[in-house]
Amino acid sequence: MLIVRRRVGQAILIGDQVEVDVLEIQPGRVKLGVVAPKEIPVIRAEVKLTRQQNLEAAGGATPEKAAELAERLRSRAAGAESGSGPQQESPERPRNDEVSRSA
Amino acid sequence: MRFQTRHFGIIEFDDDAVFQFPAGLPGFEDEHEFVALEQPRIRPIVFLQSLKRPDLCFITLPVQTIEPAYRLSVSAEDLRLLELPEDRQPEIGKQVLCLAIVAVAEGQTPTANLLAPLVINLANRRAVQAIMSDSGYSHRHPLPVPADEESVCSSCAEGSARQS
User: CATH topology for B2-143?
Assistant: First the structure.
């Protein structure tokens, strides 16, 4: 991997046709401008991950697989009625998430 | 409307049940229309059937069934596409339906794409696969597997039938 340090306003060139400009830097974030010919697609890496995941998901989507998955989810939920609606939360239920461990 | 599908035979639905994806989905950029199919025996799974390719469907789950505290961080660009206000995130279940695409591969733990949920504006049925780069969610979020795998498999026939 080539690692280069650049400042705002500077750029790097990839081959003859692709230019990456550093436009703006913030803590934890950088804004880049990419100049590339139309035939070279420029996408964020997450788009590629999602594309791969979509292709894989479409390949395995059958009613049988769905039934299998539904069964798995149901056995996990152990009978709890878990429809797609909002979860019902009993307001009276005591909060147990702040148990002290002083014992 | 009627449509012949590969897995579900002929399906019938109202015009307003159709989700419009103006930008398609990554990997399926030419697929703009899907319809949601729900079957009681596979709840809470929702099938998303393409209305262009009879063989194309996705297994999806409402995000809140995976992650009850799921938070949206839809980009301004995607909110525009959905024709929703850009200054705040839409409310799941009220303004938008939010589905995660599930990948089920042989011998692997099923995963859901929580990084890029399908967000559907309930008011106008416009939809987008919103890639939420800053959300911290995974595109391969593992779905829970039952502790006792055996007891689940004994009740369903092994060797899944293949439909053609």
Answer: BH3618-like (2.30.290)
